[in-house]
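ENCODED BACKBONE
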Amino acid sequence: MENLSQNQSKIFKGAGWILGTLLAIVTDLVVYSLSDSLPAAVSAALPVLFFAGFSLEKKFQAENKQNDTKKTKMMISSLLFGFIIFVAIYIVLHP
C-alpha cells in the first residue's frame, strides 16, 4: 500500500501559470469591454496574472497533502468578492 506523501502531483509544472494567464486574458477582455481603455485593461490583468499564476502553481506543485477545503473556498470567495467590488467601483465612477 502506497503512502500518500510519496505520490507525485499529476499536474505538469507550469499549469498554474497557464491557468493564471487564461484568467488574466478573461479579466483583460472583461475590463476592456466595460471601459474601452487598453491601459486600464492591462493594468487590471497584470496583477491577476502574477498572483493567480503564482498561487495556482504553488498549490499544484505542493506535495499531496490533505487539502483544506475551507481555505480553498475562502480564497475563491475573496477573489470573487474583490472582482465584484472592482467592477462595481468602476461602473459607479465611469462617466
In short: The radius of gyration is 17 Å. Residues 69-93 form the longest helix (25 residues).
